[in-house]
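Quick one, C-alpha coordinates below. Sequence please?
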Protein backbone atom coordinates (compact mmCIF):
# COMPACT_ATOMS: atom_id res chain seq x y z
CA UNK A 1 0.00 0.00 0.00
CA UNK A 2 2.88 2.36 0.81
CA UNK A 3 4.43 1.76 -2.60
CA UNK A 4 1.11 2.66 -4.25
CA UNK A 5 0.91 5.90 -2.23
CA UNK A 6 4.49 6.78 -3.22
CA UNK A 7 3.70 6.05 -6.87
CA UNK A 8 0.63 8.31 -6.85
CA UNK A 9 2.28 11.15 -4.92
CA UNK A 10 5.60 10.91 -6.81
CA UNK A 11 7.48 10.63 -3.52
CA UNK A 12 10.87 8.85 -3.71
CA UNK A 13 12.04 6.51 -0.96
CA UNK A 14 15.72 6.09 -0.17
CA UNK A 15 16.57 2.43 -0.86
CA UNK A 16 17.67 0.50 2.20
CA UNK A 17 20.49 -1.99 2.40
CA UNK A 18 17.99 -4.88 2.20
CA UNK A 19 16.43 -3.32 -0.93
CA UNK A 20 19.87 -3.13 -2.52
CA UNK A 21 20.65 -6.73 -1.59
CA UNK A 22 17.31 -7.98 -2.90
CA UNK A 23 17.88 -6.16 -6.18
CA UNK A 24 21.42 -7.53 -6.52
CA UNK A 25 20.42 -11.13 -5.76
CA UNK A 26 17.06 -11.31 -7.51
CA UNK A 27 16.74 -14.35 -9.75
CA UNK A 28 14.43 -15.12 -12.63
CA UNK A 29 12.09 -18.09 -12.35
CA UNK A 30 14.31 -20.06 -14.70
CA UNK A 31 17.41 -19.32 -12.59
CA UNK A 32 15.52 -20.31 -9.42
CA UNK A 33 14.42 -23.59 -11.01
CA UNK A 34 17.94 -24.37 -12.19
CA UNK A 35 19.38 -23.54 -8.76
CA UNK A 36 16.78 -25.71 -7.05
CA UNK A 37 17.40 -28.65 -9.40
CA UNK A 38 21.18 -28.46 -8.97
CA UNK A 39 21.04 -28.01 -5.19
CA UNK A 40 18.39 -30.71 -4.72
CA UNK A 41 20.32 -33.02 -7.03
CA UNK A 42 23.51 -32.57 -5.03
CA UNK A 43 21.56 -33.19 -1.81
CA UNK A 44 20.04 -36.38 -3.19
CA UNK A 45 23.45 -37.48 -4.45
CA UNK A 46 24.97 -36.94 -1.01
CA UNK A 47 22.14 -38.91 0.61
CA UNK A 48 22.60 -41.71 -1.94
CA UNK A 49 26.37 -41.76 -1.36
CA UNK A 50 25.66 -41.91 2.36
CA UNK A 51 23.69 -45.11 1.87
CA UNK A 52 26.60 -46.59 -0.08
CA UNK A 53 28.73 -46.02 3.04
CA UNK A 54 26.08 -47.53 5.32
CA UNK A 55 28.62 -49.88 6.90
CA UNK A 56 30.74 -46.88 7.92
CA UNK A 57 28.38 -44.99 10.28
CA UNK A 58 30.60 -41.91 10.52
CA UNK A 59 30.80 -41.39 6.76
CA UNK A 60 27.10 -42.24 6.37
CA UNK A 61 26.13 -39.69 9.03
CA UNK A 62 28.34 -37.01 7.48
CA UNK A 63 27.01 -37.50 3.94
CA UNK A 64 23.39 -37.84 5.11
CA UNK A 65 23.61 -34.63 7.16
CA UNK A 66 25.31 -32.69 4.36
CA UNK A 67 22.61 -33.96 2.00
CA UNK A 68 19.89 -32.70 4.35
CA UNK A 69 21.57 -29.29 4.66
CA UNK A 70 21.88 -29.04 0.87
CA UNK A 71 18.24 -30.06 0.36
CA UNK A 72 17.16 -27.47 2.93
CA UNK A 73 19.16 -24.82 1.06
CA UNK A 74 17.62 -25.89 -2.24
CA UNK A 75 14.18 -24.77 -1.13
CA UNK A 76 15.56 -21.27 -0.61
CA UNK A 77 15.94 -21.06 -4.40
CA UNK A 78 12.20 -21.56 -4.80
CA UNK A 79 10.89 -19.07 -2.25
CA UNK A 80 13.98 -16.96 -1.62
CA UNK A 81 16.24 -17.05 1.43
CA UNK A 82 14.44 -14.38 3.46
CA UNK A 83 11.02 -15.96 2.97
CA UNK A 84 12.54 -19.37 3.74
CA UNK A 85 13.81 -18.08 7.08
CA UNK A 86 10.47 -16.39 7.81
CA UNK A 87 8.61 -19.62 7.02
CA UNK A 88 10.99 -21.62 9.20
CA UNK A 89 10.50 -19.20 12.10
CA UNK A 90 6.71 -19.19 12.06
CA UNK A 91 5.27 -20.12 15.46
CA UNK A 92 3.76 -23.32 14.04
CA UNK A 93 7.13 -24.75 13.02
CA UNK A 94 9.90 -22.97 14.91
CA UNK A 95 10.22 -25.82 17.42
CA UNK A 96 10.38 -28.38 14.58
CA UNK A 97 13.01 -26.31 12.80
CA UNK A 98 15.14 -25.84 15.91
CA UNK A 99 15.04 -29.56 16.71
CA UNK A 100 15.96 -30.42 13.12
CA UNK A 101 18.88 -27.95 13.06
CA UNK A 102 20.03 -29.14 16.49
CA UNK A 103 19.91 -32.76 15.33
CA UNK A 104 22.06 -31.94 12.31
CA UNK A 105 24.54 -29.97 14.44
CA UNK A 106 24.79 -32.80 16.98
CA UNK A 107 25.27 -35.37 14.22
CA UNK A 108 28.09 -33.34 12.68
CA UNK A 109 29.64 -32.77 16.10
CA UNK A 110 29.49 -36.51 16.79
CA UNK A 111 31.16 -37.34 13.49
CA UNK A 112 33.96 -34.78 13.84
CA UNK A 113 34.57 -35.38 17.54
CA UNK A 114 34.72 -39.16 17.16
CA UNK A 115 31.77 -40.02 19.39
CA UNK A 116 30.86 -43.71 19.79
CA UNK A 117 29.29 -45.33 16.73
CA UNK A 118 26.06 -46.22 18.50
CA UNK A 119 25.56 -42.58 19.49
CA UNK A 120 26.13 -41.43 15.89
CA UNK A 121 23.57 -43.98 14.68
CA UNK A 122 21.05 -42.74 17.27
CA UNK A 123 21.70 -39.14 16.21
CA UNK A 124 21.06 -40.04 12.55
CA UNK A 125 17.77 -41.70 13.55
CA UNK A 126 16.87 -38.63 15.60
CA UNK A 127 17.75 -36.43 12.62
CA UNK A 128 15.53 -38.50 10.33
CA UNK A 129 12.60 -38.24 12.76
CA UNK A 130 13.18 -34.50 13.16
CA UNK A 131 13.25 -34.08 9.36
CA UNK A 132 10.03 -36.03 9.00
CA UNK A 133 8.32 -33.95 11.71
CA UNK A 134 9.64 -30.72 10.16
CA UNK A 135 8.37 -31.69 6.69
CA UNK A 136 4.96 -32.60 8.10
CA UNK A 137 4.76 -29.14 9.71
CA UNK A 138 4.22 -27.71 6.21
CA UNK A 139 1.15 -29.93 5.64
CA UNK A 140 -2.09 -28.77 7.30
CA UNK A 141 -2.77 -31.17 10.19
CA UNK A 142 0.28 -33.15 9.06
CA UNK A 143 1.90 -33.36 12.47
CA UNK A 144 -1.34 -34.57 14.06
CA UNK A 145 -1.61 -37.30 11.40
CA UNK A 146 2.03 -38.27 11.95
CA UNK A 147 1.46 -38.49 15.72
CA UNK A 148 -1.60 -40.67 15.13
CA UNK A 149 0.30 -42.99 12.78
CA UNK A 150 3.23 -43.28 15.19
CA UNK A 151 0.85 -43.86 18.10
CA UNK A 152 -0.83 -46.72 16.24
CA UNK A 153 2.51 -48.27 15.24
CA UNK A 154 3.84 -48.12 18.80
CA UNK A 155 0.57 -49.50 20.23
CA UNK A 156 0.83 -52.60 18.03
Amino acid sequence: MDSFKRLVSGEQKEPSLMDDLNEQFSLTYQQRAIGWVICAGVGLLLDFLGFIFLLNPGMFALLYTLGNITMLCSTAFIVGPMKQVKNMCKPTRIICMLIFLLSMALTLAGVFEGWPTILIILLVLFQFCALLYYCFSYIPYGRQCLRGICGRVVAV
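The chain has a mean pLDDT of 85. The two ends are 56 Å apart (CA to CA).
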